[in-house]
Amino acid sequence: MAGYKVLVDDNFHYMDEEHRFEHGVFPSAEEAVAACKRIVDEDLDQLNQPGMTAAKLYDLYTTFGSDPFVVAVDHNDEIVEFSARNYAKERSSLLAS
User: Fold this and answer.
1) Residues 24, 27, 30, CA angle at the centre, nearest 5°?
2) What dihedral angle (degrees, nearest 10) is formed by the CA atoms of 29, 34, 40, 42?
3) Three-state secondary structure readout of 13-74
4) Would you call 86 helix, strand, or coil by DSSP?
5) Given strand 66-72, what is the order of strands in its sheet?
6) pTM for the whole thing?
7) Rg (CA), the chain
8) How far apart are CA 71 and CA 57, in angstroms?
């Protein structure tokens, strides 16, 4: 089945593929990226506390959050540009008080 696979690394175990897991396979790149964003949003919601700065929220995310990314199942498909860290930084600015 062609599609886009979402894999998730654990920021707490940075670069340790033993802690990587597959979140799912999606029929389009857009759906895979949307799944990645939901994962990051859930982490940020759990980490965010009243009065927390955007910098602190982002720091907690990069230490304890999930790092989802997209790979094409068929290597001839397009490369999907999505950075969970960039998205988390942007969202942290919006979420933190």
Assistant:
1) 90
2) -150
3) HCCCHHHCEEEEEECCHHHHHHHHHHHHHHHHHHHCCCCCCHHHHHHHHHHHCEEEEEEECC
4) helix
5) 21-26, 4-10, 66-72
6) 0.86
7) 14
8) 27
Q: Is 12 helix (H, G, I), strand (E, B) or coil?
A: helix
What is the total residue count of the chain? 97
Would you tell me how many other CB atoms lie within 10 Å of the CB of residue 89?
16
List per-block mean pLDDT (blocks of 10 residues) for the chain, which spans 97 residues.
84 70 87 96 95 95 93 76 94 87
Which residue type occupies 15?
Answer: M
pLDDT at site 10:
86
